[in-house]
């Protein structure tokens, strides 16, 4: 390739470096989506580069690079540098990273951190990268501190300086930063005096009541409303396809033309339709004009009868309608209402024609909530699910969900595999997830489970840059807001009290689902989520498949929630011991040692990653699990219960529902004994009932004796000096 004349001042191009000319493709050395129109790909000379042909994630929005937003003095150099990021086949390592920078990342970088860097340099009168000095880089650090930039943004803006330096050997001399590594290679956290990734800055979980109500209504949509919505939506599509504007807009792509009725056939069809309305006590399709007058909606009536509206209205057959004596409705109604809430129909009237697309989108949102939340899948992975992804293993009675993953999908050289990889292990899900996917497969015929549009008459126009056909994260975010709004409006109209309360951290977002699920599993394992499904049951199923592998990231989410839970319990235990709480049972000494030692070691520790929480939870000092009337000081080697997980797994936990009375891991605090006293008091009432069945009476009497012995031993130990 030839070197443009104005750029010769930068010096000689290094050997092995491709150098673009004005007509060179922007995505010259990148894998492209199948079917890409090569004639429409961006060229180097353009100031706006379309990168979408190399984006394989179907849920991603349009990704473009707009160089017009960069400082004019540095714009030419920036274009050549970014072209190298996209097309140089040998990646440059940056602080341990190996593979080529992903195309999607390039789009984000240029519009974010790199733009910030270039604007600052231009503000310092820099017109070429070779003018950057060590003193200028120190001034850049000072600027970040003075600008009070958030720590994550600081890391990204420092990384782009390091990246530009890492690519210096493939750039001409005039585009190179100084030979020495920026800031002498010092770690970013030392440069800033701040660590990245503090856990308090991470995405907030969704509040308990908000999530419970959201999930409850999502399940209602799938279990109770879906049949009504599916029938109405199918009728809506049939009518819409018969509308005159469909034929005018889509021409040959529309279904076959108006049915040619034989003589008298339309009149007979119309008469039968009118008789059917009379039998069902229904009105003609209509609308209310601005003056309040109701009039027949001839367009919809003609679509129902499959004829043209104007000729039908003026014909003798049309007079059958006007002279029928039937009332006129305010809407065109579809389907029937069979779904119930608390024994009552879920709506007061039938679904209107105009409502059908909105209700279909709400149903799709409900399905997404169930699939994404209860599977533990990342939002993007859920949005890339395809038809036929659910199977049922009859031997194990497990529901399996196949899918593609993008995060961590790399080739042997550490480069991202742009099209993603099929999961080696499927998600193991509960049945309601499978039902939600089945509903989506009935709702539309598209290959993706969650398509960008449900109705086939919405299509991607020729000038649309985005290539993916799945719903975007931004679109799902808006859908969740619309779902909450509809539910709360519906509750208000029906006088219901189970609306979805606002979340104190803002609107619902799919990125918040995974952490919320981890919190519920840890804090509310027996909490009912719908139809006898418990979080403990969901977690057990998930751990049997993909979601239980560390590649999924979900065990790390759970580990962090477990860490927080144990730290809270540890603080409470230490405070109780300091206040003189007595502990009894075979593991009492181990309990006292662990509480004291763990508090000294872990109290106040800040975690910088999810995986760190997982690693720390393996420490034996943190293996204290409070149950009902007992505390397990877990030693996996001597535990009498069936453990949840392998004995050598740091995430192993006892099955507190399977606690064995003679287990050597049991300790009992004063708080536990209070619970035991309550159990004993309830049993005394049962034993005192002379009418109780003999077998039950004898069993309860023996259990009461056991509990009273536990209380007596504990009291004797507490009274001892």
Gyration radius over CA? 33 Å
Number of helical regions: 23
Q: Let me know the largest β-sheet.
A: 4 strands, antiparallel
Helix content range: 40-55%
Q: Report the count of strand segments.
A: 19
Strand content: 5-15%
- What number of domains? 4
What is the average of the pLDDT values?
Answer: 85
The low-confidence parts are: 1-7, 249-258
Question: What's the arrangement of strands in the largest beta sheet?
Answer: 16-19-18-17
Large-scale geometry: flat
What structural category characterises the helix and strand content? alpha+beta
Distance between the termini: 91 Å
Structural features, described:
With 721 residues, the protein is of the alpha+beta class. The protein folds into four domains: 5-196, no CATH class; 245-345, no CATH class; 351-457 and 468-550, Orthogonal Bundle (hpI Integrase, Chain A); 556-719, no CATH class. The strands form eight sheets. The chain has a four-stranded antiparallel beta sheet with strand order 16-19-18-17. The chain is flat.
